[in-house]
Fold this sequence. Notes:
Layout: H1 15-42, H2 52-74, H3 79-90, H4 93-119, H5 122-128, H6 132-144, H7 150-168, H8 188-214, H9 220-250, H10 258-280, H11 282-304, H12 311-328, H13 338-350, H14 357-361, H15 378-386, H16 394-411, H17 419-435, H18 440-452, H19 462-467, H20 469-482, H21 489-502, H22 516-524, H23 526-540, H24 545-561, H25 563-571, H26 574-581, H27 589-605, H28 616-632, H29 636-654, H30 660-665, H31 668-681, H32 700-716, H33 720-728, H34 731-737, H35 753-770, H36 775-780, H37 783-793, H38 802-814, H39 819-824, H40 827-836, H41 842-856, H42 860-868, H43 871-879, H44 891-903, H45 908-916, H46 919-927, H47 934-947, H48 953-959, H49 970-985, H50 1023-1026, H51 1028-1044, H52 1056-1076, H53 1086-1096, H54 1098-1116, H55 1123-1194, H56 1199-1203, H57 1211-1214
Helix pairs in contact: 1-5, 1-10, 1-11, 2-3, 2-9, 2-10, 4-8, 4-9, 5-11, 6-8, 7-12, 10-11, 11-12, 13-15, 15-16, 15-17, 16-18, 17-18, 17-20, 18-21, 20-21, 20-22, 20-23, 21-24, 23-24, 24-25, 24-27, 25-27, 26-27, 27-29, 28-29, 29-32, 31-32, 32-35, 35-38, 37-38, 38-41, 40-41, 41-44, 43-44, ...
Amino acid sequence: MGELPMPAGVHGLSAKEQMMKKVALVVLVFQNSTQLLLMNYSRTLKGPSYISSTVVVCVEVVKLICSFALLSHEHGWDWSAAKIELSSQLADPWDTFKVGVPAFIYMVQNNLLFVATSNLDAATTQLTYQLKLMTTALFSVFILGKQLSNQQWLALVVLTAGVTLVQLGIRPPGEGEAHSSSVHYGSQLTGFLAVLSACLLSGFAAVYFEKILKGSKVSVWIRNIQLGAIGSVLALAGAYVSDGAAIAEYGFFRGYGAIVVLIIMVYALGGLTVAVVVKYADNILKGFATSFSVIVCALFSIVFLGMQPSLVFAVGAALVMASVSLYNSSRDYFGLNGVLAAAAAAEAVATGGRRATAEEEGGGTELPGGVTPNAPPLEQVFALLTSRHSSGLALRHAAALAKVASANAAAGGFHLRDLPRLVPVFEAAVTNAANASDARPYAAPLRDLLALAARPLRAAGASDELILFDHVVALVAFLAHAASAVFVPDAAAAAATALAAYDAAGRREDGEPLRYNQHAVSISGCIPLLVQALGRAMEAGDGAVETVDAIVDALLSLSCSLPSHCAQIADAGGIALAARLFAGCARAPARLEVLVELVWNVLEAVPEAHAQMDSVEVLADIRGVFASLLLHSRKRNDRHLRNEVLILATLLANSGYVDPNAFVAAGFTTLLLELACARETARVPASLPQLPLTALGCTEEDFEMKKLLWNLVLSTTTTPDGVAALISASFVRVLLMYLDPGAERGTLLQWTLHQHRELQVLATSLLFHLAAEVPAEFAAGNGPSLVIDAFVQHLDEPPPAALRSGLSKLVLNTAALFATQYGELGLVAVLLSILKDATLEVKLRRDAALTLSVLTAENAANQAEFLLEGGIDAVIALLNFDMSDPEREPTIVLAAIDCIWSAVVGIIESETQFLRADGVFALLDLLDTPKLPAEITNHGLGVILDLLDHPYTVAYVRRWRSGRDAERSVAHLLLEAWETSQAELGVALDRHGVIGNVDTPLAPVAVSDDDEGEGGAPAFAAVAQYGRTAAFVLELEAAAAAEADGDGGDGDEVSPAIADVRANMRAKVFALFCKLGFQGHTGLSCRHKTALRLILEYFKYKVGEVWTEIDAELEAEEVRPISPDLTRLGTMHEYIQQSAVNLQTEQRAVVAREQERELKAEADMYHMIMEKSRLMREAAAADAAAASDSTTAHDPVHPAHVAGPGATLSPRHAMRPR
């Protein structure tokens, strides 16, 4: 067996973890080499020295603050959530006491390092401090029961020798060469004792803290907070015990400066970096960082601190660095480790890791290899699986994997903190199984292990999920990869099942928040791997059937989760693979149901995926599955699945990506047609002769199948071959049977009344599409007569009448094909009766008017019938339709105008009757309606233009006056229509209507290729079938429906049809003025007069635009006309431009005259007002004088008036009677 290629991102660390590893390496090297150098340098500074014990206190406080900040970061910076988790953990006093032990040891260790650096140089201290590796290893063996390889023990011996040589090779400054440095150190013995004690304490504290950390599910930052809190208290107490007098005399922060603050920060950084190192690289990264820090410290001491290294020192330093690298390396340099390590791992795994019997007796404490009780150490399992010396121990491998599975099953599933070690174990196991000559020993344990992945992952808290998320992603990617392990099919199926369970969720939309599992699946890239696994399993044949089913289930789960998953399945070719599986699903309904739903989900989300099923072979397989279900569907679920297969086929047929001829070539269309007509024609399907007619029953599922069959027939018979099959099967005649009033419920199938009515509606809808495709078949089945009879029969149905509406549409669709037959059958009278019945719904009356328009177009018999049955009065009544009511349908007015166009215009008797009935007045009143849609205005003007050919119409039009304003004539109406069209087309005009562009005065719109002067025929392909306005109305209705569904386009974009309507409106206004005359129109405003001058020159400027377009086309095609033609073109351009300049001058003259007239009118009005005011004042003065004279004659003057206001009357005057 070949080795399985692992997917990118599954092996080793992810890209993010690799970056974190590099960052942690740099930080740890910086911290290790900087902290001792800074402390040593700080002791050489002049001035008061700092108290070292206070620095330890500050370090613990800084670590405490930073740890709480990192804990809050795990909770998304939710301080309250972090506080709650911390409070719940601190509530356990025993747990806090356990953490206090390493906290006290770390406090003592830090103080010892200060003592050491005061008595030794930086390089000596740093190199000697490397003995902490040996002490850590010894405590790991004694406390944790960890086993070291021979290479690691050798590294420890080399380390000891190296440290010894370093001490022997140190020469103090001044020995040998003169040294000018004033740096002095204390007792070297004291320094060595301090650093050795620090090494012992460091090893014990590290191992003890590791035991606490891995023996519980508490976040590492909470442990750091506990350490920092306890360490701060202990450090503060120690500071006052040892240096209390100095602190009291000099102060707590004596000697603090930038260097001291930097020392505090570096020490705190070291404490925090340990957590990152343990998470991402453990001792490997730590060992390399230590090695580099030794080099940095030595070089710094040589250059700056005056240390003179000897050859012995250099050899010792080299041995120290080599021993550190050797200790942390997994490579077997000496060949000593191979067999012994494999045997030891196998023995440890076989005994269940019972090297810690005392711990098991103490309550099942979790082993250092993981956090799962009673599980063998995962590191040793991995070593057993990957060592070349144990490559043939398949049974040992299987036993180890079985113990891992058993322990995790008992614990309830995998733990998140085990994933960094579990995933490599999985990968190694699958690789060994792939390379083994016999993979059977691996099958059962791999199956059990992968099945456990379907269970929820255990976690110590939310922090585990955040910190270990990348490992969860790696697990998901591995599951997808393991699903292709067809050499162990049980395990492959278990992996796919686990992946399906991992992403299990309801259908979601893009933008909704994902669950934790779904987010991991979404970014893992597992879907392409899973599709590849499906291909491998399909190639494996019958031996991997269970794996295929499990992978299809997983893909179905993924397709139900996110639309983006469906896109990934399609991009990886999943639909093409799924299509190949249909052939084997004929007798496997369970697999077929999953397969159909999977394909259905992907096709709905990714329409382009339909192209992967555009194959005759695929359609033949689907046909075979459908036929098998028809023959063997005895249960309701089977019949429901049969219908789902038809729905899938309908999706393919309507997608536009699958060729309808493929359905015909696969025999699918023939089978569909035979089944659709079997019971009605009493014919057994020739392509499925073993199917009895009784199998096509009347259950609810059979009724749904009937509707699906009919719709699918319509979708698969759009090609000539399909139409030929349609005719051969008499499908149209079967549909007409459901419209026959004489066979109301049918004679073969006893559908319920509701079902029969629903089939009638569907048959009407299908005939709407098919009658125009096979008119001969429709006529041969007596279609026109049956349709009219059914239409008349259902006219009295109460709304909502879907059948009546469908029949109305069917009559309209076939009116052009069978106009004569419909006329002979009395359809004109029926439609007129509908128009006259105001109680019927508006759309039904609208369709009747459109059908009349089609029936009477160029059909003299139907036109005469229309006139005879009072059609003119009926359509004039529709012109008075009230469009102010929002619930009304304004398209009925368009239908009435089109009916006038077809049934009245061009027929002298009908036109005369229309004029006598004041039809022109009704039409002009309609066009005078405020805010009238442009389509109605355009079509109404077209009808009036054609009616002006009648000799009496001009008089009627000129005599018309608006009901809103008696001064408004038809000229006002036409000029307003012109200005509205000009504004909508964006013609450059000033506020008085004067043209602004003399090159193109009419500013033609380039969106329509139709000439404006051709009468305004709607640019729709359906005109020939429906009539010009009928097609336009149906297009408007479809556009309105699309807009209601949210599929409308840009609201600012003008469609070609609407632009054509607006442009043609100007042509109609010009033609109407040509027939009515440009003179004699009174009451026009200044803007109307300037517009009328432009309308007069309309044709000239349109000709100029044509020549401009010809010139532009010649230039675009790089065609140079001959000289005479160039002269003509230039002359034409100059003539049009000069004419436009002249027109602009005339318009401005009109504006000036109008302004002068308005000013004169205003002046006259002002003089009149002033004269009137003067006359009023004179009249008032005359009245006042007359009143004064009358008072003087009858009332003598009082003496006081004569004497003046200050005079005093004599008693004689006062007593004089008046």
